[in-house]
Amino acid sequence: MNMRSLSCVAATALIAVTCQTSNNADGLRVVEYRNGLWFDGAVFRPATWYSAGGTLRSKRPAYVDEVVDLQRKWVVPPYAEGHNHWLERNAIDAYAQTYLKDGVFYLKDHTNAPVIRAKLDSTLNRPGTVDFISANQGFTGPGGHPVQIARQFLAFKAFPPSWTDRDLEGNVYFAVDSAVQIDRAWSRLIESRPDFVKVFLLYSEEYARRKDDSAFLYRRGINPAFVPRIVELAHKARLRVSAHVYSATDFHNAVTAGVDDIAHMPGTGYDSVCGAWLLRQPSFPTASSADSRMGTRPAFWCSKEIRSPISQTRIGSQRG
Known about the structure:
The structure is a single chain. By secondary structure, this protein is an alpha/beta fold. The protein has two domains: about 5-75, Urease, subunit C, domain 1 (Roll); about 135-320, no CATH class. Helices cover about 30% and strands about 20% of the residues. It has helices spanning about 90-100, 115-125, 145-155, 180-190, 205-210, 225-235, 250-255, 275-280, 285-295, 305, 310-320; strands at about 5, 10, 30-40, 45-50, 55, 65-70, 75, 80-85, 105-110, 130-135, 140, 175, 195-200, 240-245, 260-265. Strands 1, 2, 3, 4, 5, 6 and 7 form a seven-stranded mixed beta sheet that branches. A three-stranded parallel beta sheet has the order 8-9-10, with helices on one face. Helix 6 (about 225-235) packs across helix 7. About 30% of the residues are buried.
């Protein structure tokens, strides 16, 4: 038997066995992982597990082909990136290898251009890469978030060279202002074969005020009255809906409309206490540095958003 050592492991990586045959009756090659501390959903426990045919088993088979000594290292399930946007087509391989190195095997992309999605589909969702799903084009309102991000990546030349600003609507996002526009956009979205649907709610309690005010360009989203229609269409197509939210009212409107997932949390938008704090920093922090700084935040952090008078009981009861 071959003995080797690992310094860090994710459970899914341990079941990537070779195609060699084994002396076991079922012919499956078996690898024993001993001296590991395995996470059981609550705590880490010492245990020995066996990988056979792409499955982890606790029962020892008759014959073991290889033994791996985990040297009391911690074994966890693979991680998932629940919210990102992979827009740089030429960086996909580097992204995937960075994720795998950190134990992140799954990625959920909350808005992307189908032309980039095609490149991602040809590279990802196979052994040696991450598993990837995308909403493709997201739903916002005219002049709403994330139009500015699409324009930024147009300037970065991330999209086809022939594209201009006019090509972004419909190819990267849908800026809808009527039920007719939703139905027209829906047909185009379905053609792109999304894995789920994304809607952008930004301070929807002020939607009427922000809608036509240039001071709120990119700091607004879809009309909250349209979200139930999008949810209805998505659920008929057996697609889940994720909602971008920045305020407690956004959260309320998303849940009452029947969305399945919430992206962001109330109090994280740039018009909130949190956002104002971030914008006052000498340099804009990355996600990791922002998280570390939040660890020392004052007690009133985001209290204006979190304490918004919403009936949490009613929201909870509606969702079961």
